[in-house]
Amino acid sequence: MNTTLESMPLGRTTHHDLAPALAMAARLRLTPRSALVTALDGAWWPHSRDLAVELPPLLAALDELWGRITRVTVNPTHWPVVPPRVDVSGRIVHVGRFVEQDPDKLILLSFTVGRWDLLVIPPETPPASAARLLAAAALPGSMLSAGTLMANEAVIGRGVREAQRREADWEVSWETEGGACMSPFGEPLGDPHASPRVRRPGLPVMPVEAIPLGAAALGTAAGMAAAGGSGRTS
Fold first, then answer.
1. Is the pTM for the entire model greater than 0.70?
2. What is the pLDDT of residues 111-149, one digit of tens each?
3. Which of 32, 30, 23, 16 has its CA nearest to residue 1?
4. What is the Cα gyration radius of the chain?
5. pLDDT digits (tens, 9 = 90+) for 89-105
6. What one-character-per-residue DSSP string does the chain give?
7. Which of 12, 68, 82, 185 is 20 to 30 A distant from 111 in Cα terms?
């Protein structure tokens, strides 16, 4: 999945383009340049719950944007192991555990620049859901917390899955209850995926392109109607 590294809010740092491989390894999206105050500085979608593996590429990417990150804090709820430190290109970054911190958020600190908060999207999140969360967390001026964004996405995800389930049930019902009976033209009657049809009371389903035009057409249609929709003329 392609993600975007956007520029940071005003007053943070100057944006620098990252190498595509580094951007893909990090899988994050940052709040674009704006004077608006935001609750989050973007979102991060790690590949796993192994902080020792996931943090180095993230911090390497952010070093290019924000300056050298010196400390990271996490809530251990979603991380099986929280290493006290990780190696990032030969330097040590300290990792802190704070149970009071939002479990869906990662906090990054720099001695020279400041602090940034990122939404952490669970690694197992489906791509469509992750894309919505990446966009929502990077929305300028948004004051929604990490926990609120995750709760909102849970509701959206349930709605999407329910709509997909209803559509699948409808397709099964269509096939098993005779909805796909063949018309005289060799195509399923009422097939929602077929080309447009014109329906008339008492007449077979006719493709639009099969309906004749002009005065002759009127006589043919009238004759079919008089024959009770059998398709025969009088």
1. no
2. 777 899 999 999 999 999 999 999 999 999 999 999 999
3. 23
4. 29
5. 889 999 999 999 999 99
6. -----PPPPTTT-------HHHHHHH-EEEPPS-SS--S-SEEE--SSS-HHHHHHHHHHHHHHHH----EEEE-GGG-S---SEEEETTEEEEEEE-TTS-TTEEEEE-SSS-EEEEEE--TT--HHHHHHHHHHHT-TT----HHHHHHHHHHHHHHHHHHHHHHHHHHHHHHHTTTTPBPTTSSBTT-TTSPPEE--TTS--EEGGGS--HHHHHHHHHHHHHTTTSS---
7. 82
Q: Do the beta carbons of residue 102 and residue 75 sit within 8 Å? A: yes
In terms of DSSP bridges, do strands 197-198 and 115-120 run parallel, antiparallel, or are they unpaired? unpaired
- Matching residue, tokens 């996931």: 54
CB contact set of 197 (below 8 Å; sequence gap of 6+): 205, 206, 207, 208
